[in-house]
Amino acid sequence: MTSAPDISVHHHLGYDPIAANMLQRVGGKGYAGPVVHDGTHTWRAVHTQDGPGTVRIRPTATGANVDGWGPGAAIAVGLVPDLLGVRDDPAKLVAHHDVVRQIIKARRFDRMTRTNSVWEHLVPVILGQKVPVASARKSWQGILKLWGSTAPGPGPDHLVLGPAASQLAGLAYHDFHRFDVERKRATVIINAAKRANRLEEAVDMNPIEARRRLEALPGIGPWTSSIVSQLALGDPDAVIVGDYNLPNTVAWVLAGERTGDDTRMLELLEPYRGQRARVQGLLKLGGSRRERRGPKLDLPDLSNR
Question: What is the pTM of this model?
Fold first, then answer.
């Protein structure tokens, strides 16, 4: 049985949200999660100050019809325009390389999402520190299965509300061992949960101050803060450093160099200051792929560390 929504709103954006590809990075952390794509509809479950809320986003040619359920429905529905990139202006990106110009032409409608939620991203991003993507995804799925909760409303079964900060703040580091999360990352997650309210204040700061606030917590460095800033604030210049693959991708696409490091990547991206994160994302999505050499990384067993 489908329950009637607690609130229904039409948001006029003036562009097609599907063409904008704004939600492509919010999900993608495994089958279950707080963002689920169901055909042309997108579901999102989020914690708000009024309680949990679920939204169903049904895109139109110039906006979206949005339905909401739960005590936090009104707030969750009100966040949807930012989620769909209404504050972003992709036209600010000016190409300085032919390849970037070509990618812009192919993906000229792409917009960066702004979720207005720091905590929503902190745990899965911290899980991704210094481990293969598959390992981080497996850990996050395990955490959702054990500590996640059912989202309000009639969403798909795999729409799961992530654990609240208050829930993880009281855990011990060894509680995370069952998910192959060693003491170091577990401690960062627990400490972030204990300071979640202060970290959440970053949403109302400018991007530089926001990243500074996040990095004040031990265990959160530029890699983590930049990814969270991109997603929570929609920051187009939150360039990611310390990544295993991105320097090679940027060096290959922009300069034809097989390998690169952060220094070389930042040098190549300097003409795009103010839009460097956007360029990184576009190169990753639309640039030519460098041929891989060597074996893939094995998934480490971190359950006893």
Answer: 0.91
